[in-house]
Structure formats: structure tokens, C-alpha cells
């Protein structure tokens, strides 16, 4: 019997393993099974090269729970170990000293196992004693038993094992009795080992009998040894891809399409990424893509391995270039990982372009489902954005799809403004904005439908990417002004007429919570509505973005600003003005004359005191004139307001415009209906 100390310079190696890996102690089973698989695969390789000529026999890995004995055993039939192998791989830990090891890695628990050959020692995270029984495949090899109780001391001696391979038995400690439950072991094997290349057996298959599940005599195989991503794309049908997707994500709808990754230079990478149907809400989860290393599950937190926008995808990535245990900081800094991330981005963009070119009609049919993914990618990844500009589609309100180049060609002749900017007109709600869309179409304009969750941000990005291009929402102005091709026409009204009409129309505006209206006058198409309501494009965008960006909450608190545009060329408006002037001229004229006289005096007084310090008498005179002007103006507004209250057509015009914008509700809507009935 050989006794000795494990090759470290201090006795605290095991407390360190237990303490700093305790939160991840379940990975011990993954490490032991992965080692068993590795030993099995190595023997297969030796046999393929003729270096092992014996019978391979049953090459499966077995995981056995013995709750009564308090043990968990992992058994393989791989290459096994000689006494020299045990000394080399078990008894010597390749560190210059445990103190250096502790200081360097204690704050990065995930870096310990996998990176530094400590996979086997993870067993001590859950065990008070570990025994190895092993027999090498080599001719004349002698079986070896190794035993350690969690201290640096171990014993090693020959044993009577007669079958090739390695058997590792763990005596589970009192704090980890959960690992003596078959259900817990099944869960871990399913999580970490479901796609290992060698059959992994644990427990027995069960059948329903006499009202309960009972064990049969059939061993339960945990894993699928040839998952779809390990096979050649040419050997897989669409049904194979869909079946594998449902194996990964039971109960979900079929994916839209998928990308099979397969590269061996400058790094090794395989996998399948699926485009699922994304619901109406932007659902970015961190556990959609599973990361594997040689078919061993590593993590489903793949931030750093794939760009953030690909968190919307689902599937599997497998690369031996990513260690079994990786911390987030390691992923973010590792050069190979960054190359992998860049490759995946390029591959996804290339696949999307191929799909677009191969079957455009099919691509268009899926566009509404993948649009949010592509827009999110373009907004967050510059390289993907540049590639995606080739296959990004715009959809108009008639349901037609265009590439960016196609759409520019379609509209630039009719929708280029006086400054040479191509104006892209868009709607966000084709029902609510129907009248605006109709008015724009009547002018010969095409209207895009931009009603996605990210379209507000996407529009801003496109304005920066596309030269001399601007987007305006269809209800941000009257149709005549959506594409400004010449200076706007004068309203045709005098200052006094504008003042009178402003008072008339402003007085009949409803008091809506967090809404403000600016009354203006324009000479528009006589056939257009008498009153139109638009919303300032810039302020509306800011408020829309504030809904998704907390840092812009200032804009969210501002009231909604609307422009109430009175069409002075419309017959009904002309009649209101003419009737008001006729009814109020005698009353308003004296007030207007007095107001003008006071304004002239005020102007002269301010000119007199412009460069001098005003006297108290001058200050008093200025205030008196200002009060007189305000009083005259208020009296005029009161007269106009009283008059407007008796002219139902004014309120009707305003309410019609409010109704067209979804702003007429409650009491005001009820009054509008009653008034409409009376006017009939």
C-alpha cells in the first residue's frame, strides 16, 4: 500500500474547493461524468487507430445512487488508469503552491474547475470521502484503488477490479444528502448530460402500475448521443430540425427558421440557432440559448458569447474553445469568445440575406415575426446593422414590402422636399390615422406602417444611416405640408381677423388632461376639413422614446402638444368669420381702436425710456397702458367667446377634428352626438 500527500504545499486546498465552489456544487456530477465520457472516447479513438485491439464491449457510463450506503458512484469502461497515471493525474496538482492558487483564484470560483484540471476534485465539494477503483486498458495492467477522506493524505494500493475502466465512489457528506435522491441526480444529468456522445445510464425506466409508477428491469438512458447539431446539415430534414427544437423547448410553436453553425477555423464551433415566433412584447431572456463544450452543458447565460440582440433566438452553441467553467468577466475579456461572437453575428446576417434572396415571398411572410429581432440587432450592433441594410424591409399601409433601396426609388420623385430631403411618411395606427392616410394618398404619397415596439428608435437610426432622408408621421401635419415643396401659403387673413378667429376657436376647445392646443390658420385645399389636428413630430418622438428609456422621463411628464389648424379656405370657416365680423363689428371696433391707440402710446413711451432709467411716473404710465391693453383684449375675447358659444358649427368643427384623433371622449363625445342629431 502506498501512502502519501497530494502534491500541494499547504493543507487548505480542500477547504478552498468546498468554500469557494459551494454555490455551484452541483457541477461536480457534470465534471465526473464528463471525465468518464472523455475516458470512453479516448479508448474509441485508440481502437480506431489500432492501438487498442481488444473488445470495446459496453461503452456506456453509469451513475448509481445507493441511498442506504450513502454513496454515489460513476462508472465508465474507458481507458482506465495505471498507478503511474493516478500519481500523475490525481496525486499531483499542477500549482506552484496552494497559497498562490488561493490568492489568485479565490474571487473567481468558476475559473477553478475546468481551467486547471481540478474536475475530479470537485467531488470533494459534496463528499467526505472519495474512492477510485480503476484498471487500465494496457496489457498486463494492475488494478488500482485510491482513497482520500478530504485531507491531503491518501492511500493507494492494488485491488481486485477485473473490468477495464474507472469507478469513482463518493460518500456524500451530511450537508449534501440531496445528491442521494435519484430524482435530484436525474435532474442534474438531464441538465448537464442530455446530449453527451456516450450513453449515460442512471436508475431504471418506470411504468404506471396499480395507480403508481414502478421501476422496471430496463436501465434508463438519460441522453441523446447524436443531437442534431453534431450531424451534417445535408443529413437533416426540416422535420429533424423542428423535432430537435421541440426537444429543447417542449410545448412551443414551430420556429420560423433556423441557422446551422459549423466552422472549424480559426476556432471550432457548431450549433443550431432558431428564430422563434416572438410575442407582441419584447421578450429578452437570458436563458434561451444553451452553451455546450463537446456536448457537455456549460451554461444558459450566454451574455458575451452572443451579442445581446441574439438573446431573442433559441438553440444550442457548442465549442471546445470555451472552457467548461466560465465566469461572465472571463467571457467578456476572452479573445476567442469575442471572435465567436463576431462570427455568429456575421453568420446570422448572411443566413438572413440568403433566405431573402432564395425566396423573397416566404421571407416577406415571416417579416412581421422577425422584424423586432432585426431592428433590435441593427440598433445595438453596428456590423449587423450594416449587413442588414441589404434585406431590411419596409411595409406600407397597403401591405406591400420594399427594401430600403426600392422604397427610395418609389417615393423620391413625389416626396422630395424643397431642401432635397426624401420624406418618408409613416403611420402607427392605420385605423386611428385613416383620414390622414387617405389625405396623404390623395396627394400621391405612399405611407409606411411603422407600428412595431422599436420603430420609434428604428426611424431615428434610419434617418442617421440614410442620406438626406427624414421621417414624418402622417398626422404630424396637414397633407399639404407633409412634404414642403415651397413656402407655405399665407392664411389670407388680416391680423384683426386672425385675432377674432383665434378667440372664437380657442374658447370652444375642451379642457383635456395633459393636453395643450396651439391654434393656427392656413389656406389649405377648400375640399379639406375645416379644422385639422396634428401633433408636433419632435415632441411626440421624445415622448414615445421616454416610454422605453427611463433616462428620458422628463419628456414623459410634459403635456401632449397638438396643433389645431383652421383651414381658412374652407367654406364653413369663411362663413363663421363673415358672420362673426357682421355680428360683432359694432361692439369690437371701439375696443380695437382703443387697444390700437394704447399700443401706440405704449410703443412711444418705451422708445422714450429705452436708454434712460424710467421715472416713477413713467413706470406708472407704462403699467396703466399695459393694464388697459389687457383689459381691451380680454373684453374682445369675452365677446368672441360668448358669440362662439351660440354658434354650434364652431364646436362641431373642433369636435369632428378631435373625434378623428381619438381625443373626443366621455361627456364631450355625448354632447357631440346630441348636437349632431339637433343639427340634422
TrEMBL record:
Compositional bias per record (Basic and acidic residues), positions renumbered to this chain: 611-637
Residue span of region Disordered: 611-641
Binding site for ATP: 31, 35, 76, 81, 96-97, 166, 328
SUPFAM superfamilies found in the cross-reference section: ATPase domain of HSP90 chaperone/DNA topoisomerase II/histidine kinase, Ribosomal protein S5 domain 2-like
Domain Histidine kinase/HSP90-like ATPase: start-end pairs: 24-176
GO molecular function list: ATP binding; ATP hydrolysis activity; ATP-dependent protein folding chaperone; unfolded protein binding
Keyword DNA damage: no
InterPro entries: HATPase_C_sf, HATPase_dom, Hsp90_fam, Hsp90_N, Ribosomal_Su5_D2-typ_SF
Keywords, comma-separated and alphabetical: ATP-binding, Chaperone, Cytoplasm, Nucleotide-binding, Stress response
Database matches in PANTHER family: HEAT SHOCK PROTEIN 90 FAMILY MEMBER
Sequence similarity: Belongs to the heat shock protein 90 family.
Name of the protein described by the UniProt record: Chaperone protein HtpG
Amino acid at each position: 500500500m502506498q501512502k502519501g500527500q497530494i502534491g500541494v504545499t499547504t493543507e487548505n486546498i480542500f477547504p478552498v474547493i468546498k468554500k469557494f465552489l459551494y454555490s455551484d456544487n452541483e457541477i461536480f456530477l457534470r465534471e465526473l461524468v464528463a471525465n468518464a465520457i472523455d475516458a470512453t472516447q479516448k479508448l474509441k479513438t485508440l481502437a480506431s487507430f489500432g492501438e487498442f485491439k481488444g473488445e470495446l464491449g459496453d461503452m456506456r457510463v453509469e451513475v448509481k445512487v445507493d441511498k442506504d450506503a450513502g454513496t454515489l458512484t460513476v462508472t465508465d469502461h474507458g481507458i482506465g488508469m495505471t498507478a503511474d497515471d493516478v500519481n500523475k493525474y490525481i496525486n499531483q496538482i499542477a500549482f506552484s503552491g496552494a497559497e498562490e492558487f488561493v490568492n489568485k483564484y479565490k474571487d473567481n470560483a468558476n475559473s477553478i474547475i475546468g481551467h486547471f484540471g481540478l474536475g475530479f476534485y470537485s467531488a470533494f465539494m459534496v463528499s467526505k470521502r472519495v474512492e477510485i477503483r480503476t484498471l487500465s486498458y494496457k496489457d498486463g495492467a494492475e488494478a488500482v484503488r485510491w482513497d482520500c477522506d478530504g485531507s491531503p493524505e491518501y492511500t493507494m494500493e492494488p485491488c481486485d477490479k477485473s473490468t477495464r475502466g474507472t469507478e469513482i465512489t463518493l460518500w456524500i457528506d451530511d450537508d449534501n444528502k440531496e445528491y442521494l435522491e435519484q430524482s435530484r441526480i436525474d435532474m442534474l444529468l438531464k441538465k448537464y448530460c442530455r446530449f453527451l456522445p456516450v450513453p449515460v445510464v442512471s436508475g431504471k425506466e418506470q411504468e404506471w402500475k396499480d395507480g403508481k409508477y414502478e421501476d422496471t428491469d430496463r436501465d434508463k438512458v438519460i441522453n441523446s448521443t447524436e443531437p442534431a447539431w453534431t450531424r451534417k446539415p445535408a443529413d437533416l430534414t426540416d422535420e429533424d430540425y423542428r423535432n430537435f427544437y421541440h426537444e429543447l423547448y417542449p410545448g412551443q410553436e414551430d420556429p420560423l427558421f433556423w441557422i446551422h453553425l459549423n466552422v472549424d477555423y480559426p476556432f471550432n464551433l457548431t450549433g443550431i440557432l432558431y428564430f422563434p415566433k416572438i410575442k407582441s412584447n419584447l421578450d429578452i431572456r437570458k436563458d434561451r440559448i444553451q452553451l455546450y463544450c463537446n456536448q457537455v452543458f456549460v451554461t444558459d447565460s450566454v451574455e458575451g458569447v452572443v451579442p445581446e440582440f441574439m438573446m431573442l433566438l433559441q438553440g444550442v452553441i457548442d465549442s471546445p474553445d470555451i472552457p467548461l467553467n466560465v465566469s461572465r468577466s472571463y467571457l467578456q475579456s476572452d479573445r476567442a469568445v469575442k471572435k465567436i461572437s463576431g462570427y455568429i453575428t456575421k453568420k446570422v446576417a448572411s443566413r438572413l440575406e440568403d433566405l431573402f434572396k432564395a425566396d423573397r415571398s416566404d421571407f416577406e411572410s415571416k417579416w412581421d415575426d422577425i422584424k423586432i429581432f432585426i431592428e433590435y440587432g441593427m440598433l445595438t450592433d453596428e456590423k449587423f446593422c450594416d449587413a442588414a441594410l441589404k434585406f431590411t424591409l419596409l411595409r406600407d399601409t397597403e401591405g406591400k414590402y420594399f427594401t430600403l433601396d426600392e422604397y427610395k426609388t418609389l417615393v423620391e420623385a413625389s416626396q422630395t422636399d424643397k431642401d432635397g430631403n426624401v420624406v418618408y411618411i409613416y403611420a402607427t395606427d392605420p385605423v386611428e390615422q385613416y383620414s390622414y392616410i387617405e389625405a396623404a394618398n390623395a396627394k400621391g404619397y405612399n405611407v409606411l406602417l411603422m407600428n412595431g415596439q422599436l420603430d420609434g428608435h428604428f426611424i431615428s437610426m434610419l434617418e442617421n444611416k440614410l442620406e438626406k432622408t427624414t421621417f414624418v408621421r402622417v398626422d404630424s401635419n396637414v397633407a399639404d405640408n407633409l412634404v414642403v415643396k415651397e413656402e407655405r401659403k399665407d392664411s389670407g387673413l388680416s391680423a384683426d381677423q386672425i385675432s377674432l378667429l383665434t378667440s372664437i376657436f380657442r374658447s370652444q376647445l375642451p379642457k383635456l388632461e395633459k393636453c395643450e392646443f396651439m391654434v393656427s390658420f392656413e389656406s389649405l385645399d377648400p375640399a379639406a376639413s375645416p379644422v385639422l389636428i396634428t401633433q408636433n413630430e419632435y415632441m411626440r418622438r421624445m415622448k414615445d422614446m421616454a416610454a422605453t428609456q427611463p433616462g428620458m422621463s422628463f419628456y414623459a411628464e410634459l403635456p401632449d402638444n397638438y396643433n389645431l389648424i383652421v383651414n381658412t379656405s374652407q367654406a364653413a370657416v369663411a362663413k363663421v368669420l363673415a358672420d362673426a365680423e357682421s355680428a360683432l363689428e359694432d361692439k369690437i371696433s371701439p375696443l380695437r381702436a382703443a387697444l390700437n391707440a394704447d399700443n401706440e402710446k405704449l410703443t412711444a413711451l418705451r422708445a422714450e425710456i429705452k436708454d434712460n432709467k424710467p421715472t416713477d411716473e413713467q413706470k406708472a404710465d407704462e403699467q396703466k397702458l399695459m393694464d388697459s391693453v389687457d383689459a381691451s383684449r380680454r373684453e374682445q375675447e369675452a365677446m368672441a367667446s360668448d358669440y362662439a358659444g351660440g354658434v354650434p358649427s364652431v364646436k362641431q368643427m373642433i369636435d369632428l377634428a378631435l373625434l378623428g384623433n381619438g381625443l373626443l371622449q366621455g361627456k364631450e363625445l355625448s354632447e357631440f352626438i346630441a348636437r349632431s342629431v339637433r343639427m340634422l
